[in-house]
Specification:
The protein is elongated and about 45 Å long. About 30% of the residues are buried. The two termini are about 25 Å apart. The longest helix has 24 residues. The chain has 4 helices and no strands. Helix 1 packs across helix 2 and helix 2 packs parallel to helix 4. It has one domain. By secondary structure, it is an all-alpha fold.
Length: about 110
Amino acid sequence: MKLRTVIGSLLVLAVLSACTSLGLAPAKSFDEKLAYAYGVHTALESSAATAVRAHELTQAEGANVLKIADNAREVLDSAKAIEATDAAGAATKLALATSILNQLQAYLAKRGSS
């Protein structure tokens, strides 16, 4: 079941990235943004592991990246859980988690990992 979620997230991320590179509209709905953020989380896990193996990050730095990414994932899960009852709160949590994940992506990019 978890493998399906990961594969699904990766597919959504790939589709959204392809849409952006083709000049198509980025994710707009809450569910699209949430799926994109989950995909970014999954990609960060892979990128952090690759960066550690390539000695672009120390093991401690890699562990910190994963810990922060997992905390952002918990915020995403929380946003998903309250979407039906508190749309504004869910949107705020989604924006926070997405911002954190984007910052982690930028950090890894500066360290030489994509």
